[in-house]
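Sat 14:20. Reprocessing the chain from the morning session after the first attempt stalled halfway. Input below, unchanged.
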Amino acid sequence: MDTLLKKLVRDFPDINFVAGDQFYWSPKQGEVVYDKAALLKRTSPWSLLHELGHAILQHRAYTSDLELIEMESQAWEQARKTGTRYGFEIDNEHIQDCMDTYRDWLHQRSACPTCDTRSLQQDSSHYRCFNCGETWSVSSSRFCRPYRRKVPTK
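Finished this time. Tokens:
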């Protein structure tokens, strides 16, 4: 992975590559952060290329859960293209495993706390049930457990 990292630093001078404790793209800092402790893992180059995909695509903020999932899918597609350029083929099973974490997260968030029907997001922090009309709020964080709090009716 050190060789790949050196090539990426050379080929993408506008992006800062910074050692950290996990892989992520920070649009505010213009940094791709990589997990230095995981550098020897087989999947590390794929994670690095995925986060670079977000940077190349200039992903910033998302306004809905579905938009986040679309951005993740786009970043993986970009990672595949970039990976090919550097001699890496990203395993589709790995991509689907990563995407499953987002799909599972969305599935939990979109479940009505009253009747368990899956519904669409109304705004960045609220869902409304198609079946029973319940409205619930969710956290804006994709890293926390998907709590669903019923919104009190007036």
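The domain at 2-83 is CATH 3.30.2010 (Zincin-like).
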